[in-house]
Amino acid sequence: MHFDATFFAFVGLLLFFVLIAYLKVPGMIGKSLDARAAKISDELAEAKRLREEAQHLLAEYQRKRKEAEAEAAGIVAAAEREAAALTAEARQKTEEFVARRNALTEQKIKQAEAEAIQVVRAAAVDLAIAAAEKVVAAKADSNVQNNLFQSAVGEVKARLN
């Protein structure tokens, strides 16, 4: 029998397969592939869990954002109501202030009118007294003047007492 290189290559290949089977390389490769598949499966499960957690956090943050927006809208509405109330109060106080000022001014004007009338009356009385003195002095002699003076002094004394 003549063995050529093909035969020896075939025998080497068979020995190689027997050696691989003896050393349980397919089992080790299987275990390695199973371990890698399990690791990948665990990583996928972890990724899925992280994704669900991220979605949950996203939903929570969106809910919190909506609550914050609603709260901000409430604060803005309250501030607008407060500003409107302050504006109305300021307008009312301004109107009251103007009304008080007008009343005070009118009162001062009436007082000034009354004082002016009193001054005019006093001036008229003084003028009338001066004119009466001149008329009485021109018409009355000294005897009549003394009687008038004595009666005026008597009236003043009577009124003072």
UniProtKB/TrEMBL annotation:
The chain crosses the membrane at residues 6-23. It comes from the Bacteria. Pfam families: ATP-synt_B. Keywords: ATP synthesis, Cell membrane, CF(0), Coiled coil, Hydrogen ion transport, Ion transport, Membrane, Transmembrane, Transmembrane helix, Transport. It is a single-pass membrane protein. It is found in: Cell inner membrane; Cell membrane. InterPro entries: ATP_synth_b/b'su_bac/chlpt, ATP_synthase_B_chain. GO terms for molecular function: proton-transporting ATP synthase activity, rotational mechanism; proton-transporting ATPase activity, rotational mechanism. One of its GO terms (cellular component) is proton-transporting ATP synthase complex. Residues 37-115 form a coiled coil. F-type ATPases have 2 components, F(1) - the catalytic core - and F(0) - the membrane proton channel. F(1) has five subunits: alpha(3), beta(3), gamma(1), delta(1), epsilon(1). F(0) has three main subunits: a(1), b(2) and c(10-14). The alpha and beta chains form an alternating ring which encloses part of the gamma chain. F(1) is attached to F(0) by a central stalk formed by the gamma and epsilon chains, while a peripheral stalk is formed by the delta and b chains. Belongs to the ATPase B chain family. F(1)F(0) ATP synthase produces ATP from ADP in the presence of a proton or sodium gradient. F-type ATPases consist of two structural domains, F(1) containing the extramembraneous catalytic core and F(0) containing the membrane proton channel, linked together by a central stalk and a peripheral stalk. During catalysis, ATP synthesis in the catalytic domain of F(1) is coupled via a rotary mechanism of the central stalk subunits to proton translocation. Component of the F(0) channel, it forms part of the peripheral stalk, linking F(1) to F(0). The b'-subunit is a diverged and duplicated form of b found in plants and photosynthetic bacteria. This is ATP synthase subunit b. It comes from Allorhizobium borbori. The lineage of its organism: Bacteria, Pseudomonadati, Pseudomonadota, Alphaproteobacteria, Hyphomicrobiales.
